[in-house]
Inverse folding.
């Protein structure tokens, strides 16, 4: 604004404040600093809350697609019955016994058609048992094309044994067994050794509530 | 030879005291337990397991809504006389926790049917004052299933076997027969569904209570168009339901038995979507075969619906 003059009286002169141009800059800088402080505080709070994401070899059950959740839940659900049979008989039940007990997924007639092609085998170890299944009717070259073309592994670990496999959960409860379901996006062989190196993912979900921390190695 | 009739008479007199007879009598003796149940399916399950050897007592009246039931003093008194109570534990029978506290019965043992079961997660939005983000809980309708029900029945049976060792063999036998019967129903339904091409079918439900059952049947649910049951839709909600059905391209909608006909007609007129009704298995007279009848009906309805719509009927 420039000067204006009322007739015969006084003359206005607009005086710009000192460093007016820089006030806006200072204001923007202050707002930026406040936002940065908020972001830093939020990040620190998030870390201190003990939030720990899944491990790189874990997969959330909610990310399973199509009929994979049905097979995952059937496997997880069979674990309690398997443990009961073991306590009753003194040994891990084999596939035929599980089939006769009417336990899906081993009793295939109790599954949707698309999951009935799975063939199961049992692998006993000193401290754990694996029930490994692949869809025998499928080729092995397609990846992630369909969950039915995947491989599944139910692993039940006796945490009181001398050599439980890794990784396994250290429980918050006095629960003796760690029940795990592993998933591989390809049709593959049984992972006799480290499943992680063979591309297997440990599916986690509601059952992980009592997992205090994951033990990945001895010591 | 002349002593043969005497020996025969002696043998006949000793039959009641034979080992087989003794054990049979033991098994059929009363277990003597009084077992409370919080939901209709549990009444059927426990009744099948124990037969006549124990007493099964529902905690709420037959037509009461377990979501909104307010316990009365007589309910608390009843709880004080129970030996065991079978509960859902996932929020479907929230009335039970306050009853258990009020009853303060130290010898009452609680059987949580969902302990150790694989559950379906449910995510709900948290408001800003709750910290925002999403809250995880679990779908409590594990009883509307067959394989899930079979697991729970076996688990309940094991707990009862511990309490009544003399009847353990009987409970095991009853449990095996019952679960086998239920699973044969499921197997028949799966065989029928195998004949239907479900690739292009879009299915929605008016409630998320059937998630476990549909998963067992290998059926993908494209949308749940109304989150709460028992609530009559307002015009706005009905409009939203119609919009979501159209958007998802839903061809089959499974509603509940008490879903009013007028809504069925409106939705069909607006969307061409066929509606079929399923039982929530939570209302009606407490009877031993209630669960099996309700689930048979549900399975038959689902098979019929998908067959009719899948074949363009």
């Amino acid at each position: 604004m420039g000067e204006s003059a009322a007739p015969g009286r006084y003359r206005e002169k607009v005086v710009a404040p000192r460093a007016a141009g820089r006030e806006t800059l200072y204001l923007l800088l202050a707002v930026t600093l406040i936002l940065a402080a908020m972001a830093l505080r939020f990040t620190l709070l998030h870390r201190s809350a003990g939030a720990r994401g899944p491990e790189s070899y874990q997969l959330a059950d909610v990310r399973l697609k199509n009929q994979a959740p049905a097979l995952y839940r059937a496997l997880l659900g069979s674990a309690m019955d398997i443990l009961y049979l073991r306590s009753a008989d003194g040994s891990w039940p084999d596939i035929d016994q599980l089939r006769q007990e009417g336990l899906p997924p081993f009793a295939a007639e109790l599954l949707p058609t698309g999951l009935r092609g799975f063939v199961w085998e049992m692998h006993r170890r000193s401290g754990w048992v694996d029930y490994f299944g692949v869809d025998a009717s499928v080729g092995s070259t397609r990846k992630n094309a369909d969950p039915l073309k995947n491989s599944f592994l139910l692993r039940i670990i006796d945490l009181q044994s001398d050599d439980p496999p890794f990784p396994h959960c250290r429980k918050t409860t006095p629960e003796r067994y760690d029940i795990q379901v592993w998933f591989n996006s390809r049709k593959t062989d049984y992972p006799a050794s480290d499943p992680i190196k063979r591309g297997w993912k440990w599916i986690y979900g509601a059952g992980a509530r009592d997992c205090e921390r994951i033990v990945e190695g001895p010591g | 030879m002349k002593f043969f009739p005497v020996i025969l008479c002696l043998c006949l007199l000793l039959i009641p005291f034979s080992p087989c007879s003794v054990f049979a009598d033991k098994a059929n003796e009363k277990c003597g337990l009084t077992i409370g149940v919080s939901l209709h399916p549990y009444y059927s399950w426990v009744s099948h397991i124990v037969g006549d050897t124990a007493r099964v007592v529902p905690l709420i009246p037959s037509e009461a809504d377990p979501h909104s039931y307010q316990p009365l003093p007589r309910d608390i008194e009843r709880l004080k006389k129970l030996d065991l109570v079978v509960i859902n534990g996932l929020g479907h029978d929230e009335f039970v926790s306050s009853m258990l506290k009020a009853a303060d019965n130290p010898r009452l043992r609680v059987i949580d049917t969902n302990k150790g079961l694989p559950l379906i997660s449910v995510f709900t939005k948290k408001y800003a004052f709750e910290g925002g983000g999403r809250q995880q809980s679990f779908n409590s309708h594990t009883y509307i299933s067959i394989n899930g029900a079979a697991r729970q029945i076996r688990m309940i049976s094991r707990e009862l076997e511990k309490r009544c060792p003399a009847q353990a063999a009987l409970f095991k036998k009853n449990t095996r027969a019952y679960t086998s019967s239920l699973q044969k129903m499921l197997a028949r339904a799966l065989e029928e569904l195998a004949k239907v091409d479900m690739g292009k079918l879009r299915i929605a439900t008016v409630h998320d209570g059937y998630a476990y059952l549909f998963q067992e049947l290998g059926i993908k649910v494209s949308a749940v168009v109304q989150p709460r049951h028992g609530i009559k839709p307002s015009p706005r909600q009905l409009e939203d339901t119609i919009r979501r059905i159209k958007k998802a391209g839903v061809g089959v909608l499974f509603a509940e038995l008490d879903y009013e006909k007028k809504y069925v007609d409106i939705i069909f007129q607006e969307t061409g979507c066929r509606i079929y009704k399923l039982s929530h298995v939570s209302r009606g007279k407490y009877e031993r075969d209630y669960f099996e009848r309700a689930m048979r009906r549900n399975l038959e309805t689902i098979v019929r619906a998908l067959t009719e719509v899948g074949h363009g009927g």
Observations:
- The two ends of chain B are 78 Å apart (CA to CA).
